[in-house]
Amino acid sequence: MSFEGRARDTSSRSIALLIVGDQPLVRSSLRKLLELEAGMQVVAEAGNGEEALQLAQQLQPDVALLDVNLPTLNGLEVTARLKTIQRHIAIVLLTARDQAGQVLYAMRAGASAYCTKGVETGRLFSIIREVVRGNYAIGERVYTPEALRAWLEAQRDRVSGGEGERLQPLSPRGTKILRCMTRSLHNKAIAQELGLSCCPRHNHATSVLTKLNARGRAQAAIYALQHG
Fold it and tell me: Which CATH architecture has domain 15-157?
């Protein structure tokens, strides 16, 4: 991932924000809080991942506030896709559960901040301003790009927990499937791209997760990132 060229000059205007979440009442409440803060303006709301990508490309906000759990595409998938096409947009992920493996994947996917939904209002405002400056935030800590590089290196082996030695090696086809998973392709798209049968009883992605001893796609993506 690149850490350069993301800071935006908002000194002469309000910070443009995109709110993404599947609960309208929660989005509305967050919007009211943000718009009461000086120097912040919500330009749009999205209810799912696909809509978030469309609005982000159309409006190019400074910051996207993403719920990790979204319909169609989850927040991690949206992050990875959005950072390939609009690298200047800072992404703040909001989650109900703080999981070490998910934090690592989120930051490597391109997130600028990762915090729980219970974050205090003032702290959230501070995080938004930090990521616009080009810094990063995880929980209560703020990182410069250099400090985040060091954190990622320190956390990578800790999250894996030494399980790599016990994993079954992937076949060439399994490796291709894993690559598709890191691109956020769904099962049907994976089957179509690789010319595989697509049957509900034979989930190719699940077979890869089993071999990697991974609890989900996020953990499998961490393995892929660790092993190139």
Answer: 3-Layer(aba) Sandwich (3.40)
